[in-house]
């Protein structure tokens, strides 16, 4: 409901913000209470911080922006600012820092939250961009939810007894067609009206997209397995030069967490080893793997513009929607979000989430690699700090869209832009393919 925040009274807005703060903290507590002290302080992968660092970092960002900046209050723990500055220390180095221990971390974040709730009780939602529609609070809620997804990825990397559980997602169904023709046209990409949208999603701007064909669902494990067993990882024809070099250097033979045992393909999911579910979207594939599969299949990855056009444009009305299904915020009938199921749902599980053209599962399940680099939109303005987006623009990063089963609904906008290095596989990422239309398909 974030697009309707301007319609709320001040007290209704306070109540909504408090609810979002509580919801995000509940998830953080669940992820950190699920493991013992040793697991909290251990680095489970050089790619990730110890869980206890993420936990204290969440509290420190909340203190910096809401206690000190918005609230104008005295610092709670100014002495730890440098320890939890993500730009000061690489993830691989964080375990060696004099971090707060688990008990001290929990005490710190509780103290910060108490002060934040007091600020919320007294703040006036006016007087600058940080306060308009409670933007600063929304930014911090989203920050915590993004770190919760990062911590969920750390849980996937940890070894030992499984500690997380969730019900199975809804069943899938066979789709009527594997791909659809998108007629192309001009649409409004990005947003200037979503009150909690972050700077790289702004401003809204017209984009012309030529006709293209896109898969109606993400590529499944079953389809990707054909690439694996067909020798795709041994054939340089399908890989870019950089991708082939990475495959050889990293000795890749399949997506991360897949393994072949006694003729059966298995995967490990949050400590559970299970038969590879062929009907789920492929996950833990890097950009290079997605790119190679698409070429092998005679297709390509969609551009970021094509992805958003498929997710938002209604060809019947010519209107740009908030989501594939309309303007309503995501519900459990639309998409697999918020760590509700701890796995991608089978292909076809969310017919209510389809776009007008019948493209499904664009939101949730797996982040989807696109072919685009991370670039600013025309008219981009860094806000409220350069380090959120500006310092990352360039060809080093590839764009991911749509969110995963671990992404919260407060983040999972159709305009939300995620980015990562093309070699990253620990994230909950998959992809769908696109292609240029054949002349006969254009009529």
Q: How would you write the strand order of the largest sheet?
A: 12-11-10-13
Helix segment tally: 9
User: What is the CATH architecture descriptor of the largest domain?
Assistant: Alpha-Beta Complex
Q: What's the CATH class of the largest domain, please?
A: Alpha Beta
Order of helices and strands: HHHHHEEEEHHEEEHHEEEEEEE
Structural category: alpha+beta
Largest sheet: 4 strands, mixed
**CATH topology of the largest domain, which one?**
paralog of FGE (formylglycine-generating enzyme)
Mean pLDDT: 97
Rounded to the nearest angstrom, the radius of gyration is 22 Å
**End-to-end CA span:** 41 Å
Strand content: 5-15%
Determine the CATH superfamily of the largest domain. Answer: paralog of FGE (formylglycine-generating enzyme)
Helix content: 25-40%
Taken together, the total number of domains comes to: 2
DSSP strand tally = 14
Shape: globular
Low-confidence stretches: none
Fold and architecture overview:
By secondary structure, the chain is an alpha+beta fold. The chain has helices at 10-33, 37-41, 51-70, 102-122, 135-157, 221-229, 241-250, 287-296, 304-312; strands at 179-182, 185-189, 205-209, 212-215, 258-261, 264-269, 272-275, 313-314, 319-320, 367-374, 394-401, 418-420, 429-430, 434-435. Helix 3 (51-70) runs parallel beside helix 4 (102-122).
Summarize the structure in short:
The protein is α+β, with helices and mostly antiparallel strands and 443 residues long. The chain has helices spanning 10-33, 37-41, 51-70, 102-122, 135-157, 221-229, 241-250, 287-296, 304-312; strands at 179-182, 185-189, 205-209, 212-215, 258-261, 264-269, 272-275, 313-314, 319-320, 367-374, 394-401, 418-420, 429-430, 434-435.
């Amino acid at each position: 409901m974030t697009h309707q925040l301007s319609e709320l009274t001040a007290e209704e807005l306070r109540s909504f913000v408090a609810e979002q703060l509580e919801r995000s903290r509940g998830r953080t507590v669940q992820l950190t209470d699920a493991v013992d002290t040793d697991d909290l302080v251990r680095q489970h992968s050089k790619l990730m911080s110890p869980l206890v660092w993420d936990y204290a970092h969440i509290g420190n960002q909340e203190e910096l922006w809401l206690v000190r900046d918005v609230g104008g209050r005295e610092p709670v723990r100014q002495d730890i600012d440098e320890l939890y500055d993500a730009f000061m220390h690489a993830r691989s180095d964080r375990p060696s820092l004099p971090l707060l221990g688990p008990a001290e971390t929990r005490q710190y974040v509780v103290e910060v939250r108490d002060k934040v709730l007091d600020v919320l009780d007294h703040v006036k939602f006016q007087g600058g961009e940080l306060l308009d529609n409670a933007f600063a609070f929304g930014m911090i809620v989203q920050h915590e939810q993004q770190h919760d997804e990062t911590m969920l990825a750390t849980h996937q990397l940890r070894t030992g007894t499984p500690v997380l559980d969730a019900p199975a997602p809804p069943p899938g169904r066979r789709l009527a067609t594997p791909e659809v023709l998108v007629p192309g046209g001009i649409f409004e990409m990005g947003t200037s009206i979503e009150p909690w949208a972050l700077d790289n999603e702004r401003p809204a701007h017209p984009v012309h997209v030529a006709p293209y064909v896109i898969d109606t669902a993400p590529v499944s494990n079953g389809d990707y397995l054909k690439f694996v067993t067909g020798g795709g990882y041994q054939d340089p024809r399908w890989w870019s030069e950089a991708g082939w070099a990475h495959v050889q250097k990293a000795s890749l033979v399949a997506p991360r967490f897949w393994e072949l045992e006694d003729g059966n393909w298995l995967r490990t999911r949050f400590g559970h080893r299970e038969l590879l579910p062929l009907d789920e979207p492929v996950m833990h594939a890097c950009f290079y793997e997605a790119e190679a599969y698409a070429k092998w299949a005679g297709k390509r990855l969609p551009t970021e513009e094509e992805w958003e056009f498929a997710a938002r444009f209604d060809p019947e009305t010519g209107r740009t929607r908030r989501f594939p299904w309309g303007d309503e915020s995501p519900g459990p009938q639309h998409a697999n979000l918020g760590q509700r199921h701890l796995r991608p749902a089978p292909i076809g599980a969310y017919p209510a989430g389809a776009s007008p053209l019948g493209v499904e599962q664009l939101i949730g399940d797996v982040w989807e690699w696109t072919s685009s680099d991370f670039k600013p939109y025309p008219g981009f303005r860094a806000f409220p700090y350069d380090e959120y987006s500006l310092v990352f623009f360039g060809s080093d990063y590839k764009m991911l869209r749509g969110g995963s089963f671990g992404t919260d609904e407060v983040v999972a906008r159709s305009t939300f832009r995620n980015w990562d290095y093309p070699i990253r596989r620990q994230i909950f990422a998959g992809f769908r393919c696109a292609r240029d239309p054949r002349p006969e398909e254009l009529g």
